[in-house]
Amino acid sequence: MTTTTAPAAQTYHIFIRATPQQIWDAVTKPEHSAGYLFGALVETTGDIGSPFRYHAPDRSSLWGDETVLDADPPHRLIVSYRGLYNPDLASEPASRVSWQIEPGDDGACLLTVVHDRLDGSPKTAARVAGPSWMRVLSGLKTLLETGKPLNA
Q1: Can you tell me the distance from the alpha carbon of 66 to that of 12, in angstroms, rounded to the nearest whole number?
Q2: pLDDT score for 6
Q3: What is the pTM (predicted TM-score) of this model?
């Protein structure tokens, strides 16, 4: 039997031809999140201490019920994370997702997403690793740059 330890942090970078405000809105508004986040509808004010929720596309269930831990709109958003869409993930301690938006001189922003505090959440770490986060971020980029979801 082989056991592996999930990394304590996963970091992803992507350049998006959009303004910081457009990226912020895509992360915090349901009319955008549904187009790149597996249909999930985000609900938040983005205020520190407020809820950051992901609803199923039909709003019949919560896929995530997080809290905004820190925010500096439209440049930084840090939220807790628990995947309620899967009972194995929901039973693990919350991890943390940080969105950092840095404008560039060429009209593109560097978006850095760090998913950390995964030490006690190995199933979550495995589930969100690599292709999962990259699919979300590629979908976000495609939506903002073309106006169409990645799977359209």
Answers
A1: 20
A2: 53
A3: 0.91
